[in-house]
Amino acid sequence: MDRPATLTKRIATVLAIDDTPANLMALGAALGNDFDLQVATSGEAGLALADQLAPDLILLDVMMPDMDGYETFRRLSAEPRLKAIPVIFLTALHGFESESFGLALGAADYITKPINVEITRQRICNLLEREHLRRQIECQRDQLEHTVSQRTAQLQDRMQELQAIFTLSPDGFVSFDQDRRVSQVSPTFSRLTGLTAADMTGLEEVAFAATLADLCIFKARYRGANAMMGVLQQDAGPGMSVNWETIELKVPEGRVLEVALRQCNSSTVSHILYVRDVTREVEVDRMKTQFLEMAAHELRTPLTSVLGYTEVLLSQDLDAPEHREVLGIIHQQAEHVTSIVNELLDLVRIDSRRGQDFVVEPVALTALVEEVAMAYKPGPNRQAPVVTASRQPLRVTADRRKLAQVLGNLISNAYKYSPDGGEVRIGYRMAQREGVSWCGVEVRDQGLGMTQEELARCFERFYRADTSGKIPGTGLGLCIVKEIMDLHGGRIDIQSTPGEGTTATVWLAACTEPECLIVNTL
Questions:
Q1: Are 174 and 184 in contact (CB under 8 A)?
Q2: Strand pairing of 109-112 and 87-91?
Q3: What percent of the chain has pLDDT over 70?
Q4: Low-confidence winner among 21-25, 136-140, 176-180, 271-275 (lowest mean pLDDT)
Q5: Higher pLDDT, 510 or 294
Q6: Which residues are registered as beta bridge partners of 439?
Q7: CB of 409 within 8 A of CB of 481?
């Protein structure tokens, strides 16, 4: 929108409309030096000239042939561009009725003939001055309207921006008016707590606090604004949001929220409650603590053995066979520690990088399975895994090294958990789900098997179905397999029967793109 122009004062244009030339000459002699005087001798000519000039004032004779002054005025008033021009009627008619009629039509003034030049000049000057002031006021009004319009548009843009932030923010907000009643509730707050804006708006702060507190578990309840404000004022004074408190909801179970309060000096808002979901952070902290505790526990056993047998070597003179036996135990436990550390590092890398370091490419699945199976060295008196040939080439898109690690872990588990022997067989499966072709590799053993309770926990970190301690392992292998498969968009299925054995199947989407015809088989 263009800014309205500032009005400047200039020589006024006066249009005189009179059918009597003598009157026009007299007006010209009297007013010509003070104004830009234009004349017309009929109503029609006056209308045309007014449309062309848009004069500042019109002197209009009432008694004219064809179109009198009243009709000329009506037609001037009907034109949007001309209706605001002030008009002074000039007439030889005397009497209250004619003057009243002219003024009732909307004329600015009424002068009777013969005119008094000085009075006429003064009335014209007064009218023009008022008209100039009116235009100045209109100009200032237009400027003010323009400024208000601009500010309104800016405020609307700002309000839309704030509303978008308010709506899309992952954190929740509740604002309270100066009467300490809920005035606004963000969609995120409703999503986090289940308390809708319709239910909360208008509630007093005490009632709101009680409602939110009822949703919390007893040991982590919402204390309300009064309690939080007391701590806030002690710590930092008004306006500073430094006091965070944690609440935990009953439903959904385990949802943990951090809440903070900010006091406001606004005339409409007394304070704002800020809520953010920290469930994930709390769960991660809990998992880290649990992970460290489990890692420390798993490392303590082999390290204790290493320390104990080392002390035996240092404190006792053993013969050669005993010495060799003790060194063998130390070596075995050191390998176990190394295995735990390596698998811990694998988990840390997987957790931190989330597959960003994967080199994903087309892989010939059958060739990779055969390579991993051939490379695996079973223990004494154990046969190598039996690989059933695939009826067709199977290709997937994956990180070849990570997929080899998955297959190696499954084969290793199959041998470890079948200590009494039995075949370990590797086969292939194909399936269609929701229009997608899937390739599966299954590893089947004839070992100990697992109960349903053990199956439910088999992917937990450090969980081991064997509690005897006779089967080596860290309890991290299946957890790593599942993490890798999840990051590939695949999955792992496990079926097991106690005393009969376990079948573990990993699934990946088949690669059907043209580039899969050229695959990595190295």
A1: yes
A2: parallel
A3: 91
A4: 21-25
A5: 510
A6: 430, 508
A7: yes
**Average model confidence (pLDDT) across the chain:** 84
Q: Is 36 left (phi over 0), alpha (psi -120 to 50) or beta?
A: beta
Q: Which residue matches tokens 């385990």?
A: 254
Cα separation, 480 vs 354, in Å, equals 12
What SS3 class is residue 233?
A: helix
For the chain, the farthest-separated pair of C-alpha atoms sits apart, in whole angstroms, at: 151
Q: For the residues 234-253, what does the mean pLDDT come to?
A: 70
For residue 410, what are the contacts with CB-CB under 8 A and spacing of at least 6? Answer: 443, 481, 504, 506
Of 6 and 98, the structure prediction assigns the larger pLDDT to 98
Closest CA to 498 of 464, 435, 453: 453
Residues shown for the chain: 522
The count of other CB atoms within 10 Å of the CB of residue 423 is 15
- Tell me, what's the pLDDT at 230? 67
What is the DSSP code string of 156-178? HHHHHHHHHHHHH-SSEEEEEET
Q: Is 300 helix (H, G, I), strand (E, B) or coil?
A: helix
Distance between CA 50 and CA 446 in Å, rounded?
Answer: 110
Task: State the pLDDT at residue 194.
Answer: 93
The DSSP letter of residue 12 is P
Q: Give me the residue label for tokens 């890798």.
A: 484
Q: How confident is the model at residue 434 (pLDDT cuts 50, 70, 90)?
A: confident
Q: What tokens were used for 385?
A: 């895994």
For the chain, the first-to-last Cα distance in angstroms comes to 69
**Residue position matching structure tokens 């000519």:** 45
Model-level pTM greater than 0.85? no
C-alpha closest to that of 86 among 111, 115, 114, 68 = 111
> What dihedral do alpha carbons 105, 106, 111, 117 form, nearest 10°?
-150
What is residue 516's predicted lDDT score, i.e. its pLDDT?
52
DSSP per-residue string spanning 112-157: ESSPPHHHHHHHHHHHHHHHHHHHHHHHHHHHHHHHHHHHHHHHHH
Average pLDDT over residues 280-287: 83
Q: Decide: 406 and 506 in contact? Cβ < 8 Å.
A: yes
